Amino acid sequence: xxxxxxxxxxxxxxxxxxxxxxxxxxxxxxxxxxxxxxxxxxxxxxxxxxxxxxxxxxxxxxxxxxxxxxxxxxxxxxxxxxxxxxxxxxxxxxxxxxxxxxxxxxxxxxxxxxxxxxxxxxxxxxxxxxxxxxxxxxxxxxxxxxxxxx
Length: 150
Description:
Elements: E1 3-4, E2 7-8, H1 9-16, E3 23-26, E4 41-44, E5 47-50, H2 68-85, E6 93-100, H3 106-113, E7 123-128, E8 138-145
């Protein structure tokens, strides 16, 4: 048994492979399928975490024609489809993270983004990144909260 930082390798492995008992995978064909070892979304308790949604049209497998506005719309439609699969809507979103290839596109992204949300708006981070998968201009991930039924 190899020691790592004072812990045996077996102990580390067993601690890191425990399953979260209330974790539920959310998957829909109305959003692009995962292209790697990840889920479209995971629900844990009353929170749903989506993976970043590229602007891929699930019916064509391609980006929409146009630029940042069209890509932002498609990314948000993909988020919306995943949330609908979980019985939620855009008003359940409490946090968004928007990744953009060019911060110069912020105003155009923001104008489309505003079409999808009403008060109270979710919190948001928007960051420019060097590149996005498949040469996308935008990728959006969200955290949504399920409403208490009580």
